Amino acid sequence: MIRRFLAPRPRTLERDTLPFTLSDGRGIEVQRVRNPRARRLKLSVDERGARLTLPLRASLVSGERFLAEHRDWLAAQLAHYAEAAPPPLCRDATDAIPLRGTTVPLAWRAGRYAKLQWCPGDDGAASTLAFDAPARASQATLQRALRDFYESQARADLGRWLPRYLPGLPRPPQRLKFKRMSSQWGSLSPDGNVVLDLSLALARPSAFEYVLVHELCHLVHANHSRGFWKEVEARFPAWRAEREYFRGEGRHLKAALRALLD
Length: 262
Hints:
By secondary structure, the chain is of the alpha/beta class. It has helices at 2-6, 60-69, 71-84, 139-165, 205-217, 226-235, 239-261; strands at residues 14-21, 27-34, 42-46, 49-54, 96-99, 102-110, 115-120, 126-133, 175-179, 186-188, 193-197. It contains 7 helices and 11 strands. The longest helix is centred in the middle third of the chain and has 27 residues, at 139-165.
């Protein structure tokens, strides 16, 4: 007991931002992360920007020197991601948005409140979206309306799937909520709250459904043991295909939502 209290607490990630100037004179912000598990300096770039990882014993000066040595590589990588970045939400210009693994046509209309609603197509089915918004609606108002639409669509999907998977669980989830997650697709808290990434609304429905099943199975096994994967297999046999889908499309889905809502 005494040893447990005297043992040092495990170190956690330490994050800050470092201003840096590229060779063409552009100023950027580099996320600097001191990671207890890192064994060497590492510079990485993705759709969120540049990230410099330092092990515990590395000095800040050595990190800045490492960053300067890779200045040209960093500029090239940032340019690559800028070219591949999805377009942002732009009033009267955005004519389609991603949803459920496909792209849905979007029309802009004047309206009293900012909201998205389905419009019937020629065959009577809802196949297009209308974005109603006041003329003076701010960008933040438009983005909030789009976020609310994505969450409403995701909750409608949950309403169809959840009753199918509740039988056999030791208890139902306490609460289901959506948020934007940087790397994860879902999580389950000890008190039974399920959190799902809002980007799942953009994914193909079978992949979204798999993530829901994955988190529900943690109500049975709070780990990734062999028993957990047997539970997943029994409830969702095609889980491997959906995991591969996220490996190939996951970053694009998160980047698309980030571009639309940021």
